[in-house]
Predict the structure.
Amino acid sequence: SSGLKSINFPESLKKIDTGAFSYCSNLTTVELKHVERIETEAFMGCYRIATLDLGDSLKRIGNRAFYSNNMKGKIKELTIPATVTYIGGSSFYQCGVETIHFLPSPIPEFGTNPFAQNTITKVTIPLSAQEEYEAYIATVTQMSGATIEVFNDIPINPKEEYFWVEFEETG
């Protein structure tokens, strides 16, 4: 345990090593704006984290990265950045997650039960990967009964819009 309550990493830091902040039980705010990799158990036991910003550069969340292990987790709302390609097993175990916003499309690879021991009531998913997310969500006990909201992430390019023009034949 340490007195550390908040972390905002510099742009130059791209990876949080295995166990780097494990059991910093006073930690309440973590901002990972430029981090690309969170290794195994990097924040394990940091059960007071309530504000977690995974930024927009993150690619990989290691196994048990935020594993809370005591049912006191406080991360009520979680946004998975569009850049994420892997979410490790038990990554958010007992973190208190109620709402998840998945931004990645295509759907990331998931380790074994990354959201175990949470009561998830709402999941937001991108339209472009709706079928894949719905198939995944159907296999996750913690998400059964959750409201699923779909957002349109398919950009409209004005140059590719289609329109109809009717012509009248003249004799």
About this structure: The mean pLDDT is 89. The two ends are 88 Å apart (CA to CA). DSSP finds one helix and twelve strands in the chain. The CA atoms of residues 90 and 114 lie 4 Å apart.
